Amino acid sequence: MKRIGLVGLALAAILAAGIGGYWAGVRDFPVAGLREWFGVEATLAAAEPVGTGAVIYYQDPDGKPVYSATPRRTRDGRAFRTVRASEDVSFEGRPPATVEAAGQAGPRRILYYRNPMGLPDTSPMPKKDSMGMDYIPVHEGEDDNGSVVKVSLGKLQRTGVRSELAARRVVGRLVRVPGTVQLDERRISVVATRSDAFINEVANVTTGDRVTKGQMLLRLYAPDIATAGAQLLTDLKSGGRDSALGGARQRLENLGLPPEAIAEIERTRKVPLSMTWRAPRDGVVLERNVVDGMKAAPGDVLFRLADISTIWVLADVPEFDLGAVRLGAPVTIRARSLPGRTFEGRVSLIYPQVGEATRATRVRIEIANPGGVLLPNMYAEVEIGTGDAAPVVAVPDSAVIDTGTRQVVIIDRGEGRFEPREVKIGLRGEGFTEIREGIAEGDRVVVAANFLIDAESNLKAALRGLTPAEAQP
């Protein structure tokens, strides 16, 4: 008790010395002797700026993110630090009680006071809330109908707010869908007769073989062709009129006899017993339905050939991606059976219906098939490029806050001032979003931590929406 009394007397003497005497005493007072005589730890810290304005909240003395609306102590008995309005890093970005307008000599006029806890309540005069906390003043120029949000530089640095310029660029993305290799329907041919015929000989050609245009496929005898050929020879020997000769030639052509075979009859003046049927195009034999000695009826398919130098890839594009696909769009195709190889093509047709079960639309890509390495019904991985080749105003995807019903971009107006602005978006791709309405090229938009500013903007709008008309400033 005596030691405590002596310590109290010493501290009282220091305070009684006055301001000038206090500092002189501090310089001359034997601090080490005070520790030795009274057993207390005397430390003198440099004078720190003292906060001004209303008490906003109380924070852990060690700076930990622990706060309290009322005075509080830690477990070891230390009091929480008092944080006043000038010390709070608020969305207003400046000390509410001592803000001075740039270029003005005096403080700005206080418009009204808002609830310190963010509740929709304002007051035209200073007051306290139910917990005894002072209402925070809102100064002239700080209330701009909720369109502009102010953030202090300290909070900008801590939250990592970052902005970029909206610029013109080509916005596109890849639509990746499965596909299958199919034959080009325009490059399939059928070898058949137009009259009854007897097959004398079939060439050594089987299903899967490659044939060239003009290659012999079979020899046959057709009574109707022989009769029409004999009539042509009769007209030629009798010196018939051109109309008669033309009629005989026409009958042979109607029976499917190739022009070169007709020319051979006219040259040799002889109708051969066996007519040669040749391949009408280069391609692969898909079907062989003929053998030596068989009788073929008119229209029977003897051979079916397909040219695979150019093929189709049919891809199923989901309905929600269909709007981004356009005719002529570039396409890259990869086949699982050919690792490391890619094939380039373009969208040639978007089929005019959506599959009821798959909710996908078939898209046709026409590509070259060098060497015939792509075979019908192969599985393919299709990448369709989307977007227009013309550059558009675009911002990074992270700059767009999409609520589902509207899209918002935060405009950086400098000096910690931000303006949320509703926009209309277009295509998305490669990390960028097209902006069709709302901002222009060169506008600076927030691309990181924009949720913080949007939250404050929504809070301001909510405060105005919930506050009764008579209570609004």
TrEMBL record:
The keyword Ion transport applies. Residues 310-385 form the CusB-like beta-barrel domain. Belongs to the membrane fusion protein (MFP) (TC 8.A.1) family. Residues 188-306 form the CusB-like barrel-sandwich hybrid domain. Residues 236-271 form the CusB-like three alpha-helical bundle domain. This is Efflux transporter, RND family, MFP subunit. It comes from the Bacteria. Residues 393-453 form the CzcB-like C-terminal circularly permuted SH3-like domain. PANTHER family: CATION EFFLUX SYSTEM PROTEIN CUSB. GO terms for biological process: copper ion export; plasma membrane copper ion transport. GO terms for molecular function: transition metal ion binding; transmembrane transporter activity. GO terms for cellular component: membrane; outer membrane-bounded periplasmic space. Transmembrane segments: none annotated. Keywords: Ion transport, Signal, Transport.
